[in-house]
Design goal:
single chain, about 250 residues, alpha/beta, Elongation Factor Tu (Ef-tu), domain 3, Rossmann fold, 2 domains, six-stranded antiparallel beta sheet, six-stranded parallel beta sheet, 12 strands
Amino acid sequence: MEKWLKGTIVEKRHWSDKLYSLCFKAPVDAFIAGQFTRLALDIDGERVARPYSFVNPPQDQLLEVHFNEVENGPLSPRLAALKPGDRIWVTAKANGFFTLDQLPQSDNLWMIATGTALGVYLSILRTELPWQRFQQIVLVHNVPYKGLLSYGEVITNLTQLYGERFRYLPIISQEQVDIALQGRILAALEGGQLEKHAGAALTSEKSHVMLCGNMGMIREVSAALEARGMRKHRKKEPGHFTTEKYH
């Protein structure tokens, strides 16, 4: 049975249109970067809960989630309406296995996200472990419009800290801008643009790929990776890519 804790909203960030982040305090158990929590509100006598990955690294006291407001959704419009000082329910224990301790060793790590799935990678990247384990890390983020790119200051800080070891590749599918590749992840992968702009080869010998986001992207890119001779990673059968449908 889940143990629920009371949390307090500290800050809300409205990035664009229906894109938000919530920062809150709650005495949750220690968690591993890459895991998710569950947030809830009591609505019409029922506790309505949904999973959200932590954006903050485990060492931060202030907790953070990143989400889209879904029109007529059961919870997200109410989360979007919260303000500092409001209360929220949070599960005491985080869950999930989309964590670095589950991955085999490789030279390069590719982190591929659509939309708000970016957040789970920012939690991982702000810990020491990825920089101890991998020579180079490539973060790929696909959104429809430039205004949906978020956490630019965090990404800039990572670039300043790790230099050539870190590559950030934004991809925008529905408008053309100078700062990003245009199109979808699959096309950029198959056309060679990802590897060209990353300055790194995506191969079974040197790379592990983490895929997090919508199921369409995960299916397409998984198939493209399999066509390169890569296989899905399993605990009993080590592979080359790991997937998680974003909540």
